[in-house]
Each structure stands twice: as C-alpha cells, then as structure tokens.
Automatic annotation (TrEMBL), chain A:
Start and end residues of each Cytochrome c domain: 53-156, 194-300, 315-405
Record protein name field: Cytochrome c
Any Pfam family the entry gives: Cytochrom_C
InterPro entries, alphabetized: Cyt_c-like_dom, Cyt_c-like_dom_sf, Cytochrome_c-type_DH, Membr-bd_ADH_cyt_c
Primary subcellular site in the record, as a coarse category: membrane
Keywords carried by this UniProt record: Cell membrane, Heme, Iron, Membrane, Metal-binding, Repeat, Signal, Transmembrane, Transmembrane helix
Transmembrane segments: 7-27
Compartments, record wording: Cell membrane
TrEMBL record, chain B:
Residue ranges of coiled coil: none
Protein name per Swiss-Prot or TrEMBL: GMC family oxidoreductase
Transmembrane segments: none
High-level lineage: Bacteria, Pseudomonadati, Pseudomonadota, Alphaproteobacteria, Sphingomonadales
InterPro entries: FAD/NAD-bd_sf (IPR036188), GMC_OxRdtase_N (IPR000172), GMC_OxRtase_C (IPR007867)
Homology family: Belongs to the GMC oxidoreductase family.
Pfam families: GMC_oxred_C, GMC_oxred_N
Length: 430, 592
C-alpha cells in the first residue's frame, strides 16, 4: 500500500466520519418528533366541531405571537391571507396565506403539518426561511399549539398568497436552510407548563422580540441577546437595562403602558413596533404585559459609560439648534419635552441616543405614525422632512437632539443621512 | 341613469360628517347602533393633508378657498328682497361649505361660545321686559323650546370633547374672576385654561376694564395645553401660528372632528363612512310620515340607496334646508301668508366695529389664533337695558389677534392709502405692527321677509334646484349694529388709537361678498310650536319623525356669538333623545 493510497483511505475515513456526524447533527437539528403529538389525519379545511374555548385561547396565542403582523397585508388585506413583503438583507420574502383555504392556504394541512411549520420551519410545501420566527416558536407549548390550530381552522378561508420570494441565488435555494439551521437553530423542546417563566415565554417564544431586538450576524444568526438590532431600515433598541441605550430608566409600569397604549412618558412606538403594538401587545392581558415587563427589567444591562456630549458651540450643534427651533419645536417643544402620547419626548431618551441611527434618520426622512390603539386612538403623525432638510441640516438637528437635554451620543454625519435617504428612496431636498 | 343599487340597511344614516354628524355618529355607535355616514367631500387627515412641516399656504387655503366645496358642485342664489330675482353666488365669501370629512369643523376658526341664556328664550323674555316697545314690525321672535339650563350638560360635553380653553365666569352658581359675568351657569370649568394674551389683547383688556366693562378671554378651540378628551383622543397645545380659519391644523391643537372624534369613531366596527358621495334626497315612505333612507350618488356617478331606520341630516345649514325641500319633508315657508316652516327663520350675523391704527406699537400680529381674543359681553344679548333704544339684542365686542397673514394684512392700511406702489408698501410696513381691530359680533333675528327656498331657475350639476337666500338686515339689527359700532369707536379712542375707521356691515344692503361673518343660521328651526318651527326641541322633524336635522339651521335666532358649540350641544342633546327614547318609541318625541 503506497503512502498515497493510505492517505486517501485516511482522508476518506475522516470524510465518512464527518459526513456521518453531519447526518447525525442534521437529523437531530431537523428532528420534528416533538410535533408527533399533533394529529396527522384531519385537514384544516375539513368540517369539524371546534371547541369555542380552544378557539378563543388560540386567538390570544396568535395575538401574542403577532401572526397578523406578517400574515395580514397592511392596508386592507384579508385577515391572515398573507401577501405582506418582508424586506431582509438577503431579499424580499412574501408572507403566506394561513387561512384554511385548500388552494393557497393551509386548508390541506394536518395539525402535524402546522406544528412542523410553526415550530420547525418545515411546511408541507418547502422549508421556511427564519423570517418566519420558528427559531423562537420552537418552544411554543403543545397546549398553545393545539389552541392556535383550532383558531386558524375556525377562520374563514380566503384566497391568498402561498408565500413566494424575491431572493437572488444562492438565497433562493431553500435547502440552504439546512445549513443555516445547523448553525443557528436551536431545536429546543417545547416549553412545558410551569417550566419557563411566563414573561420570558412571552418575550422569547411567542413575542419573538429577538427577531428585531437582537442583532443579526452576516448570515442572519443571533448576535447579542436583546441588545438592539437593525432591520428594514429601523433600529430596534436594546431591551436590557442599560441606562445609555436600554430600558434602564423605564419602570415596569412604563413598559406595560408602552405595550398597552403605544406610548409612555418616554417614548412613542413607531415603525414596525407601532405595528406590533397595534396588532399584538395592546390586546394582550395586563397580567401578561406585567410578566413581560418583570422579565425585561431583570435583564442586566452592560456597563456603559456615558460619553461626553458634543459641545454646544460645535458648528453642527449651532446649526442643529436653529433647525430644531424652526422645524421641530412646534410639536417636540422648545425643551425637547414633546407631547405625551403624541410627540416623542426627545430629552433624556435612550432611543434618541441609540448607537445605530437608522430609526432617527428614517423618521426624519419619511415621517412616521404613532400606533393607533384603543387606549390612545389618536395616532399622531410626524411628517417627513426629506423634502425640506438638506443632509447637513438633517444631520445637524439629529446631532443636536442627541447631545442636548441630558442626551450624549456620537454626532450624525451628512453621509449617514445621505445613505438613509438613498436606502429609503426619500425625496431630495427642494 | 341606471337604477340605484341598494346597500344593506342600517340603523342610522348620517348625511354629512362634520361636527354634528361626527358627534351623532359617536353617540349612536357607542350605543350599539349600526351607522353609515355619507360625506360629499373627501377624507382629509391631519397628518397627511396638513402636516406641520409644510408652511401654511395663504394663497391656496385662504384666498383660493382650497378647503371649500367648489361652486361647480353647488352654490346658492341670493337676493335682498322677495321681489328681486336671485342670482348665483359665484365666489365664496360669507358662505363657506366644508368639503371633506370633518366638514366646516376642519376649517373653522375655533371660537367655542355658549349662547347667552336669553338667546334661547327671546320670545318670552322680550315680551316680559319690553312688550312690543323696542321691536320693529316683522320680527319673528320665538323661544327655542329648550332652555339654556336644559342644554347646559351638552355644552359641557361638547367642550370636553373639543378640549375648549377658557376661563369660566359662572360655575355652580358662583361668579368666577376673569370669566364672563354674563354667561349662563356652568357645571364645570373649561377643560383647558385660557390662551395667553397678545399685546393687543392685553391693551383691550386693560382699557375695557378701566371703562367699567368685564373683559374675558374668548373660549377657544385652539387649545392652550395638551389634552386627552373623554374619547381618549389626544390634542396638542396651540403654537399661536395664526393659521386657523380656512386652514386645517397640523398640530392637533384646533378642535375638529379629525382632532377630537374620528380617531376613536373610525375604530368602531359598527361605523362606516362613505366619502366623496352626495346624498340627493331623503326617501319617504308612501304615507310621507317616515323616511326609508337616502338616495346618493358616488364620485363615478353611480346611484345608491342606503336604507335606514333613522336619517340624520347634518349637511350644513344651507344644505340641510335644501335637502328637506328637495325631499318633500315638511311644508315650505310662504312669506306672504306666514304659513309653512321649511325655510323660515333664516338669519345671519350682524357685524360692526372699528379698525384702529396706532403709532410706534409692536403688535407682532403673526402671533395669533383663530379664537385668540378678549371680549366684553356688556353690550350683548339682553345684558343691558334696551329701553328707548328701539332694538333688542346686541353684540359681543372683541379685540382679537387671529393672525398676521401677509396677504390678509395687506388690507390693514388706513382708508385712502394707494392700493399699490411704494406708498402702499410704506403704509403696509408701517401699519403691520400698528393695526388692530375691534369686532362686534352681533345678534341677528328672523324676519317675515327673510327666508330660504328652492330657486325656480338655477340648478346644480345633478339638475336639482339650488337654494335661494332672500336676506337683508332688518331695522332692529341695523340699529343694534350702529349702537355697538359707536361703543367700539369709544373703546378705540380710550385705548389710544391714533386713527379710527368704523365699519358697519348692516349700514347698507347685505351682500354675500362681504365676508364679515360666515354664520348663516335658521331655515329648519327648532321650537315648541309646529306651526312656526320645522323641528321639535330634539331636532326631530315635526312632519317625518325618523328624520333628525342638526346644525345652525335649527337656530330660531342667531346669538352674538359663533355657532359651533351650540351646534354641537344640540346634536348631543338630540343623540341622547334618539338613544334613550326614539329607538324604542319610534314616534314623535313631542306631541304636536
């Protein structure tokens, strides 16, 4: 036996072992045996006597999981009929119809199909992208899954979208998710009653807060639990208890008020969070909101040192102050105190100091609408200023509000604004 | 034209979604009724249509009436006396029809007055105090069938919804310092404190107080502080930008259906609004005693029928009367015989005052508000003895700071100033900081020869007759205007104006192109007697009992105040009667 041949055998053996290990890992990672508890005979669209109590419980689970956020197209889409475009760094993903329509929805699915899709990202049609937060939903309890199944079966069937994509190669190859799952999907067992703290279950599992509030790495995997993330040109701030960027200055009651009404003394929900409040959190029971607040308030914040504010006589600050008086003070008030429930308080506001200024430039360029809730139906709007403020003026006023009234944060550059303006396809200033 | 398509029947259809329609819809839907509101104008939204990032465009909104319904859609014809031929009004001045969801409540100035208790009982009170000594022939003085004390809780509710700013003069029977000592009793203070004084207001306040009058801050729907109303809807504090009347408010500071009601109302599943659709007529059952719904036409020209158990007409003063006449509800008023009620009791607002010019002042008129002003009521209503004066009624005399708009202020120069060129520019520059106005907003009383009816010649785009207005000031109102004008001049002299020019709209014949006031009233008035009123005290048609008619069309006489709060209070009063009585009784709520 030549050395070459021995070498080949050795390499081959290693490869076989590796392949074997990979197969084992893939099998364990893709193990959906937890979903075997679900029935695999009756189809969603089949006639059935559904338990009204289970439907009602399931509706509450679907609300807490905010299924409507993606599966109901905003602006008049049929409930849960899909067709909403999720913009990801890899391309567009369309949400699917999850009403019991046989042709385009889940009408021909069994309960087990439903469990596998929701908890393991494996629908009867194809593998799902983690834009569907199955990495969070994997721990949804069996009871909640059963109830949710009853709820979705009870919905009127609507013709909708099967969930296509506008992704380039290689991202359009769904089997790639096998590898992604291997790297980032923790195939944890479903939560059992009493096992997981209710607040954590709502935050991590149903609420899937980390989908936005946890940063993603280059491959879309989690990076830094609830430490703040940026998605769809919005920055979701940190939910830990840091004083500079997190919720350190918020009380439990502040968090509950925010989730219930869309605003509190500190802040007003905008962008995707406004949608989350409108569709989901405002309808959650107060006890659940209190549990979420209690859990979040226990998350330790990183040791942050407050930076020195940009000097008030810095040219950008002087310019920003001037812009602020003419363009902003009418609603946000001369002292940055805002209007409760309508115009965000800018003074001493962690969201204004965010390390990533995506939300600030987004709101300033395109404007935003506060969440409309039963408790605060006004939904005050901030107009976009893209047409009015130059990159330099916009950067100056953001720098000004980030470094005034108790705020201190790095300056925003005209380049940052220009980049946001391009990304948002916002107007050029007149 | 194709036959109308029929929509699903609802409990109530509301024609026109301004203040009255919105208040009514809010009440009825909260009580569980299914309500469809039909609005001729388009949806207009604070954040999208009038964002505060866009500077107010005076040319577009004010001069060109950007928010008003175009005359091509509908206008009125006008004449002074019943023997003249009426001609169409071709430019909006005193008539200002809303043309959007929110109605005129979107573009109004914001003065949020309660009428004086006397205004509701003019017939009785004048007879008691003066007999016929001070009245001129032909006046139609009659009570409203509802007293101030009865309507008071609904004023209070309206103010709480609107967030009205002011200082009360009378709460729980106790006089309050700084308020209007002549006002009717209130159950509560204003929801938000009074606005601050401008320089001109503080001068007017000081001088009138020194003259022995009782100045107070005008109740304002440009509200002074952030406020959350009973519907959970929030408002922001007024920035004193001075662009209120003719404009929408981008700061959520001006009381309006958009700012105060629609955010809560539009969340309700039992409410639907159909915009850009015009109601052509109310359909009556064969016996003519009840309405079956309305026929309407959408923007594409499709006809629709909206069946309903209750029809609420809240389409503005002019259109309310017109729709009743077009639908055959009630008997048209005949000025010769005095018979009939639909079209009877038309009134306006009687305006006089003084333009003042000072020297070396600095009024900074750009600090303004539609309702920003100080008033004295000493010469209003029956707050003074009219014996020997030969008239009844009076005027609120106000010193206001409604804004320093560049085009509007271009006329605020002394008479005789060249209309253009360097002399005009100099005068404009010198007077911008030195001009002020004392404005008398006077009562207007119904008269036998003043009325509205369908024009025999002119029609709208759908071939339906326009409404014809027959109006001129009566002798009573002319005397009142002259009397209060002299009072304004006297205040002007005392406050130190260097040059005073008095004005009196009632000195000559009335013209719809004199925009001193937009407050047209009457034509479908409430009252205790079906022979002299179109509606009973619940704004319910005497003739067709499931038709309720809201708005200033129901005022039997106009007070020396802006009409909006009274319009709102009457709508809320009517809503309560519908919910608590009519939906069960289904009959006239007052026996004829």
């Amino acid at each position: 036996m030549s050395w070459l041949r021995r070498y080949r055998i050795a390499i081959g053996a290693v490869l076989i072992v590796c392949a074997g290990v990979l197969v084992v890992l893939l099998m364990r990672n893709g193990d959906t045996s937890a979903d075997m508890v679900a029935d695999d005979t009756a189809k969603a669209a089949d006639k059935a006597q559904l338990d009204p109590k289970a439907i009602e419980r399931g509706r509450a689970v679907a609300v807490a999981a905010d299924c409507a956020a993606c599966h109901t197209r905003p602006g008049g889409g049929r409930a849960y009929a899909g067709g909403y475009t999720l913009q990801t760094p890899f391309g567009d993903i369309l949400s699917s119809n999850i009403t019991p329509d046989r042709a385009t929805g889940i009408g021909d699915w069994t309960e087990r199909d439903f469990f596998r899709a929701v908890r393991h990202g494996r629908s009867p049609r194809h593998m799902l992208y983690p834009a569907m937060p199955y990495p969070s939903y994997v721990r949804i309890s069996d009871a909640d899954m059963h109830d949710m199944w009853s709820y979705f079966r009870s919905l009127p069937a609507a013709s909708g979208d099967t969930g296509g994509t506008r992704l380039g190669f290689p991202f359009n190859v769904r089997e790639l998710m096998l590898g992604w799952n291997l790297l980032f999907f923790r195939n944890d067992a479903p939560a059992r009653a009493g096992e997981v703290n209710r607040g954590q279950y709502l935050v991590d599992v149903l609420g899937h807060c980390g989908a936005c509030h946890t940063a993603k790495n280059a491959l879309g995997g989690d990076s830094g639990y609830l430490g703040g993330g940026t998605l769809q040109d919005w920055h979701a701030p940190a939910l830990h208890n840091g004083m500079q960027h997190g919720l350190g200055s918020w009380s439990d009651a502040d968090i509950v008020a925010y989730l219930k009404t869309g605003s509190n003394a500190h802040s007003i929900a905008a962008g995707p969070m406004a949608e989350a409040v409108e569709h989901s959190t405002q309808y959650m029971p107060d006890a659940d909101l209190r549990a979420m607040a209690a859990y979040l308030k226990k998350l330790p914040g990183p040791a942050e040192t407050k930076p020195q504010p940009v000097a008030a006589n810095d040219p950008a600050m002087v310019r920003g102050a001037r812009v602020y008086v003419t363009a902003c003070s009418g609603c946000h008030a001369p002292g940055g105190t805002g209007i409760a429930g309508m115009a965000t308080r800018l003074a001493d506001n962690p969201a204004i100091r965010a390390p990533d200024t995506a939300s600030l430039t987004h709101v300033l360029m395109t404007g935003s609408r506060a969440a409309a809730t039963d408790a605060n139906p006004t939904a005050a709007g901030m107009p976009g200023f893209a047409w009015k403020l130059s990159d330099a003026d916009a950067a100056a006023v953001l720098t000004y509000v980030r470094n005034t009234w108790g705020n201190a944060a790095p300056a925003v550059s005209a380049g940052d604004v220009a980049k946001a303006r391009r990304a948002l396809k916002a107007r050029k200033p007149m | 034209m194709a036959a109308p398509k029929t929509r699903a029947k609802v409990d109530a259809v509301i024609v026109g979604l301004g203040w009255s329609g919105s208040l009514m819809a809010e009440e009825l839907t909260r009580a569980g009724l299914r309500v469809v509101a039909v609005e001729r104008g388009k949806w207009r939204d604070t954040a999208t249509d009038v964002p505060p990032s866009v500077d107010m465009d005076e040319l577009r909104w004010d001069r060109r009436r950007g928010m008003m319904q175009p005359q091509a859609v509908e206008t009125v014809t006008f004449r002074n006396t019943p023997t003249q031929k009426a001609l169409p009004v071709r430019e909006w001045n005193c008539f200002q029809f809303g043309w959007n969801v929110g109605g005129a409540g979107t573009h109004w100035a914001g003065m949020t007055w309660r009428f004086n208790p006397w205004d509701f009982e003019v017939g009785t009170r004048v007879r008691q105090r003066y007999g016929t000594r001070e009245t001129t022939p032909g006046l139609q003085l009659q009570d409203w069938g509802i007293t101030y004390d009865e309507i008071e809780p609904f004023y209070d509710r309206f103010e709480k919804i609107a967030g009205t700013s002011g200082t009360a003069g009378m709460v729980g029977g106790q006089k309050r310092p700084g308020g209007n000592p002549f006002e009717g009793n209130r159950t509560a203070e204003f929801p938000t404190p009074a606005l601050k004084d401008s320089r001109w207001m503080s001068m007017f306040r000081k001088t009138t107080a020194e003259m022995g009058y009782s100045p107070f801050t005008i109740p304002a729907g440009n509200i002074s502080t952030a406020y959350t109303n009973p519907l959970g809807v929030r408002m922001g504090p007024c920035t004193y930008c001075g662009y209120c009347e003719m404009f929408g408010c981008g700061n959520w500071s001006k009381s309006s259906p958009q700012a105060c009601i629609l955010p809560a109302l539009t969340r309700r599943d039992n409410f639907e609004v159909i915009s850009e659709t015009e109601v052509l007529r109310v359909n009556l059952a064969a016996d003519g005693k009840t309405a079956t719904g309305v026929t309407m036409i959408d923007a594409k020209g499709n006809l629709w029928e909206q069946p309903a158990d209750i029809v609420v007409i809240s389409a503005y003063q002019i259109d309310n009367v017109r729709l009743m006449l077009l639908s055959g509800i009630g008997t048209p008023y005949d000025y010769k015989s005095g018979m009939g009620t639909i079209g009877r009791g038309y009134a306006y607002q009687t305006i006089s005052g003084a333009s003042l010019f000072f020297e070396n002042e600095r009024f900074n008129p750009f600090i303004g508000g539609g309702a920003l002003g100080v008033q004295i009521d000493d010469w209003n209503a029956d707050n003074f003895d009219h014996s020997g004066l030969g008239f009844i009624g009076g005027a609120g005399i106000m010193g206001f700071s409604t804004g320093g708009r560049p085009i509007g202020m271009a006329d605020a120069v002394p008479q005789g100033t060249p209309r253009w060129g360097s002399a005009w520019k100099r005068a404009y520059r010198d007077n911008y900081q030195n001009a002020a106005t004392i404005f008398n907003q006077g009562t207007s009383f119904a008269h036998r020869d003043v009325f509205v009816d369908l024009d025999p010649a002119y029609k709208d785009r759908h071939g339906q007759a326009l409404l014809r207005v027959t109006f001129d000031y009566n002798e009573n109102d002319r005397r009142m205007a002259k009397f209060t004008m002299d009072k304004a001049a006297e205040i002007g002299r005392k406050v130190g104006a260097k040059h005073i020019e008095t004005f009196n709209s009632a000195a000559g014949a009335n013209t719809p192109y004199d925009q001193r006031s937009t407050h047209t009233t009457g034509g479908a008035i409430i009252g205790a007697d079906p022979a002299t009123s179109a509606l009973n005290r619940f704004n319910q048609s005497w003739d067709v009992h499931n038709v309720f008619v809201m708005g200033a069309s129901s005022f039997p006489n106009n007070g020396g105040y802006n009409p909006t709060a009274t319009v709102g209070a009457l709508a809320l009063h009517s809503a309560k009667a519908i919910i608590e009585r009519y939906v069960d009784e289904r009959k006239p709520l007052v026996a004829a």
